[in-house]
Every structure is written in C-alpha cells, then in structure tokens.
Amino acid sequence: MRIVESKFIKSAVKPNDYPASPYADIAFVGKSNVGKSSLINTILNRKAIAKVSRIPGKTRLINFFEIRFKTEEKENGFVNFVDLPGYGYAKVSKTERAVWKKMIRNYFEQRLSLKGVIALVDIRHKTDPKDIVMLKMLRDEDIPFAVVATKSDKVAKSKLPACLKKLSAGLEINNKNIYSFSSLKKTGIEDILNWIDNQIL
After folding, report:
1. Whether the predicted pLDDT of 57 surpasses 50
2. Contact yes or no for 115/24 (Cβ under 8 A)
3. What is the model's pTM?
C-alpha cells in the first residue's frame, strides 16, 4: 500500500455527526501522550494533518481523514483514518474522561464501516492497565486490532524483540500482532500499512 493523497474530512462527537462515507474506517487509539498524531502524520507523509500538541489530552473530538492509496491490485483505493481521543490523561477531570470513554465506545459500537483499530502503546513503559481495558473493549466488540509500540528509537535495537515480547505478554496478545514504530526514524510504516491493507480487502 502506498499513500497517494490525504485530506481532513471533519470532526465529530456523536454518531449522527459522523461523515457518511462509502469507504472503510481504520481507527487509531491510545493514551494521550503516546504519539498518535505523530504516527498518523508519518504514515501519511504529512507534517501536520493530525495536530500534534505538547499538551497531552488535546484531541477531544473524533477526527476523520480520507486517504487515497495505491496497491498492486488497486490503482485507486480509499480508506478513512479515524483519530480517536487520547485516554488516561491524569490532569483531565473524571467527568471529562468518562465523556471521552463514552465517545470512543459509541464509535466502536455504531460505526458499521469500522474494519480495524490500531492501538498505540509506548515501547519504553510496562503494560498500562488502561491499555488492557481498551483492548478488552475491542475484544468485546469483536473488532480486529493491532498494537503498535511507538517511540522505538528510544530503545536499543538489540532490545526491541524483548520489549515487544514483554508488552505482548502483558497485553495478552499474539506476538505477531504487535509492531514497533518510530516517527523519528520512520520505521514500522510498511508493517502498519500492510496490516491496514489486509483489513480492508
């Protein structure tokens, strides 16, 4: 899969705000400071289509992007990337965190075009209970997902396999469904795009 063009469609909160689209959705979810916007920008080869902030918790809407791509089979393929609100930011009130959780759950339950979710975790940290809760939500809704371990440039290359194995065990996932990624070194992009392509066949 090679990304050809990308554009922002709209932001939404409730299901009746979601954009009507004939294309499949691939959603991105993770904690507020995990590097979700950086990953989306890197994959799309755009500097700021997804807003990157030094202030965690800034993404408080569901943001939809339309992506045009090419593969060996498709000259003109389309998919929607969906940037979901970051979760788990401690300085946000419990009420607001509950609103975000409901927003994400509504999207999972009601967006029929959703074909898969990329869940981001930080490769440097041990398994976070909030990430376990998110993966349980995806399993409960029977939504295919892959885990992407971001900021892999912060870990010695020789230690990457051990870090991924430890995260896989903590998250109770198959080691084949976790990929390391670095927006700085632009590594892991092909693995992520291949996974996306397989979900929207």
Report:
1. no
2. yes
3. 0.91
